[in-house]
Design a protein that fits this description.
Elements lengths: L2 E9 L7 H17 L4 E3 L17 H17 L5 E10 L2 E10 L2 E7 L11 H4 L9 E3 L2 E4 L9 H9 L4 E6 L7 H16 L3 E5 L1 E4 L2 E4 L3 E4 L3 E5 L6 E10 L2 E4 L10 H20 L6
Parallel strand pairs: 1-2, 2-3, 7-8, 8-9
Antiparallel strand pairs: 1-14, 3-4, 4-5, 6-7, 9-12, 10-11, 12-13, 14-15
Helix pairs in contact: 1-2, 4-5
Length: 288
């Protein structure tokens, strides 16, 4: 019988600054993963703080509280699947956009974002320090590589992970919407799959944060670029994704492939989500 590996993906909507609320979402997702015998429960980039937190994350009290919240989650989620969650990591006077791997009651690995976007709505070069090129982390019977968002838009991070033993790629994202963005993402991710020969799971958040709207649409690709599954756009979703290992390594088991709305409907959904989340996340109850 082939080896199996199950990942529970949380395509969810965090709130910038709401450490308690975001931790609750992570814990609820982990509990659902545990109930489904997941090996790993994964949340998107910078999930614990919400994204894009911009200058808020520079405040020492805030990023220290965010790290402490992740360490607390690790302790609460000790008995069950590993938990992967994005957040800030401060060390030796530097601040990183990090992906924390929690298992057995503690943080066992950290992935540090290497390529920092510095265009359009992003100024991560100002906020974060660039992490080094790193290797995969171990979970259960597999070695997982996690290029963080922008890291998967360039070749060197994924290639380094493949060369150092990663068996599949799990990409946590805070990737905002613009028209035809899904096609752009897909093209970049197919390139990473072709270059490395590894399956790739792309996990994106949803929700509005000021002028940035995250549209979800998470998906998985098998070697050759074949689409294995696709989650809906603009809707929260907790999905359980299986991989099966045979003679050629891991392959994502085919799952549901949500059909995304056309460009006009996507634009409409963006307008609705942006207004709804602006009102909800700032506490306004009505507009004039």
């Amino acid at each position: 019988m082939a080896d199996r590996f199950r990942i529970t993906l949380g395509q969810l909507n965090p709130t910038v600054g709401d450490l308690d609320g975001n931790a609750d979402l992570a814990r609820q997702t982990w509990e659902k993963g545990k109930a489904e015998d997941a090996d790993l429960v994964a949340l998107p980039e910078m999930f614990i703080t919400g994204y894009n937190a911009q200058d808020l994350v520079l405040k020492p009290a805030f990023h220290a509280a965010a790290q402490a919240k992740i360490e607390g989650l690790a302790q609460e989620c000790a008995q069950g699947p590993a938990l992967a969650i994005g957040g800030p990591f401060a060390e030796d006077g530097k601040l990183y956009n990090a992906y924390f791997i929690c298992r057995g009651g503690r943080v066992v690995s950290r992935v540090l974002k290497h390529n920092l976007p510095n265009e359009t709505v992003f100024d991560e070069v100002r906020v974060f320090d660039a992490g080094p090129l790193g290797g995969p982390y171990s979970v259960g019977n597999s070695r997982v590589g996690s290029p963080i968002c922008e890291d998967a838009w360039h070749s060197e991070v994924a290639e380094t992970l493949a060369e150092t033993g990663a068996e599949f790629l799990l990409v946590p994202n805070g990737s905002p919407y613009y028209r035809n963005k899904l096609e752009t993402r897909m093209n970049h991710m197919v390139a990473r799959v072709v270059e490395t020969g590894l399956p790739l799971i792309y996990l994106n958040m949803i929700g509005g944060q000021d002028d940035q709207i995250f549209d979800g649409g998470s998906f998985g690709l098998n070697p050759g670029g074949k689409l294995a599954f696709q989650l809906p756009a603009f809707d929260p979703e907790i999905a359980h994704v299986d991989l099966e290992r045979g003679n050629d390594g891991w392959r994502i088991v085919d799952g549901p492939k949500a059909v995304h709305p056309d460009a006009w409907e996507q634009d409409y959904r963006v307008m609705v989500m942006s207004l709804r989340d602006y009102m909800r996340k700032t506490g306004f109850t009505k507009g004039l």
